[in-house]
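Technical annex, item 7. During the second reporting period the consortium partners agreed on a shared format for inverse folding records so that results from different sites could be compared directly. Each record opens with the tokenized structure and is followed by the designed sequence. A conforming record, contributed by the partner at site C, is shown below for reference.
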């Protein structure tokens, strides 16, 4: 692994500019690595390598079984390097080593295993429509895929794109987030050992405005798979329109977590905490708007607040800690500004509300924060904060809970908590979001599609839907007369 170089065409090479930039550990504010600052020129070389690997290389031409075995081998190598991958993820993101090592990296490996199985199961259909013709469909890889990922689950969100893209026979250029490029580079170093042909997978690190945008604009790229902010997602869609590039977008959210009075209260409190404080709230599907039915509000809030006060914020490398620092100084300032806005708008600050003091005072730690008496009109209920800040809103009944839950421009995820099956299923149908959890929060599986309604984007990653994003359907008509 060469952090100061780019991985292109199966080899490490310095960026054309020769420039590097530092990555910062958000827990210590110290430099963790120096990384190549790639730009348009590097993206051009990487896309050419991926193009060549797709147009004339072995990857799309080898048997599906062989491709599947190599994708599976990548999973084996991720697991063989689990400790190192987890450490790299934690020093860049500030997430706990537990979350990196027990959740994120193992799930990414699982995604590679899941799609390794798909390689041999991608198929078209035979449609016997009339005498005198033999008609069928084929499913082809899309071509060169440009994958652009954010910093909250750097390697996991990359795996959601790389694994299905490779399994289907595409080649990939990955642009990781500037803050968190190390796991992508580590993974690149494993590709040759897995038997992945050169050029099938490439990594260009560097700023989104340069390296990212160059990937979106490059005529040699057939498809862009993006996860990140809604704002950049919209920009990508506009730019990709030029060549009508295929685009899939997994964007932000302001997901409603709706607790009915008949819910198992303890389970719902745990779910509310996981929903907003898991990964410091830096989760696109975070349950950032908690709707509590009026009748149980006081009792529910008392217990929730007590439990949240017990949440241990601190060094992400310390096993006893459940919450590390937010990813960067800039993100910390953004989150603190939202907390200020919540106070200004008249929401009631119940707990938290500022920086958390940890050890020497270094690090971008924020206290788990709860605002009560929030309304959907407030900024803290409308905009994605992407930090450990919960907005609590009360509601009267099923209709109001759903209507208020749906009052958002986003539609990524939602949850409902109730013991009444009919109520749960009515809510699950009525909520406009790509995932609805019932009596659970933040559960994912490689086989279950994930993605958004409305301004949370479009296209579904994972599951069979993930294969659709990376294949084109062709109809073949053979005249038999
Ligand atoms: P972002 O700007 O959307 O960044 C996501 C990725 O896109 C990064 O790799 C970024 O590169 C790249 N990028 C940025 N501008 C680009 C452009 N013009 N063209 C092509 N690629 C570009 O997200 P962010 O700034 O890291 O975070 C801002 C907010 O986005 C967060 O506070 C949160 O609300 C939201 N967010 C959502 C998710 C999600 O999973 N839905 C994830 C992260 C963030 P650089 O890293 O070099 O900028
Ligand atoms: Mg940005």
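Designed sequence (site C submission):
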């Amino acid at each position: 692994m060469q952090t100061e170089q780019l991985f292109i065409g199966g080899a490490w090479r310095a960026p054309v500019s020769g420039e590097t930039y530092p990555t910062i550990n958000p827990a210590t504010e110290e430099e963790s690595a120096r990384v190549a600052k790639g730009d348009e020129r590097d993206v051009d070389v990487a896309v050419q390598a991926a193009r060549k690997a797709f147009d004339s290389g072995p990857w799309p031409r080898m048997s599906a079984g062989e491709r599947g075995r190599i994708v599976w081998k990548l999973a084996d190598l991720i697991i063989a390097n689990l400790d190192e991958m987890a450490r790299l993820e934690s020093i860049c993101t500030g997430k706990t080593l537990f979350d990196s090592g027990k959740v994120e990296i193992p799930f990414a490996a699982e995604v590679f295993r899941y799609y390794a199985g798909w390689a041999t199961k991608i198929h078209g259909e035979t449609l016997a429509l009339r005498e005198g013709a033999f008609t069928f469909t084929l499913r082809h890889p899309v071509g060169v895929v440009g994958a652009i990922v954010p910093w909250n689950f750097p390697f996991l969100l990359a795996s959601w794109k790389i694994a299905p893209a490779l399994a289907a026979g595409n080649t990939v250029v990955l642009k990781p987030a500037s803050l968190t490029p190390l796991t992508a580079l580590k993974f690149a170093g494993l590709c040759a050992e897995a038997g992945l042909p050169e050029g099938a997978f490439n990594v260009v690190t560097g700023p989104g405005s340069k390296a990212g945008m160059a990937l979106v604009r490059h005529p040699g790229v057939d498809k862009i798979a993006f996860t990140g902010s809604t704002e950049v997602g919209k920009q990508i869609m506009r730019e990709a329109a030029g060549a009508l590039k295929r685009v899939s977008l997994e964007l932000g959210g302001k997901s409603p977590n709706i607790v009915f009075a008949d819910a198992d209260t303890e389970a719902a409190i745990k779910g509310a905490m996981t929903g907003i404080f898991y990964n410091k709230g830096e989760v696109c599907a975070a349950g950032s708007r908690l709707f509590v039915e009026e009748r149980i509000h006081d009792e529910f809030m008392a217990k929730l607040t007590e439990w949240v006060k017990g949440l241990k914020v601190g060094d992400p490398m310390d096993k006893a800690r459940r919450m590390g620092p937010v990813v960067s100084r800039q993100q910390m300032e953004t989150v603190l500004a939202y907390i200020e806005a919540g106070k200004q708008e008249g929401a009631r600050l119940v707990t938290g509300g500022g920086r958390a003091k940890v050890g020497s005072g270094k690090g971008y730690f924020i206290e788990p924060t709860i605002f009560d008496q929030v309304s959907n009109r407030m900024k803290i209920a409308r905009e994605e904060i992407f930090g450990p800040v919960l907005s609590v809103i009360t509601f009267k009944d099923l209709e109001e809970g759903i209507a208020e839950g749906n009052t958002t421009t986003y539609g990524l995820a939602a949850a409902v908590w109730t013991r009444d099956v009919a109520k749960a299923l009515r809510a699950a149908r009525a909520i406009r979001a790509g995932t609805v959890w019932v009596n659970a929060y933040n559960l994912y599986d490689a086989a279950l599609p994930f993605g958004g309604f409305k301004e949370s984007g479009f296209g579904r990653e994972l599951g069979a839907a993930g294969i659709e994003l990376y294949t084109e359907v062709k109809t073949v008509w053979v005249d038999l007369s």
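The longest helix spans residues 97-118. The first strand starts at residue 6 and ends at 8. All partners now use this format for quarterly exchanges.
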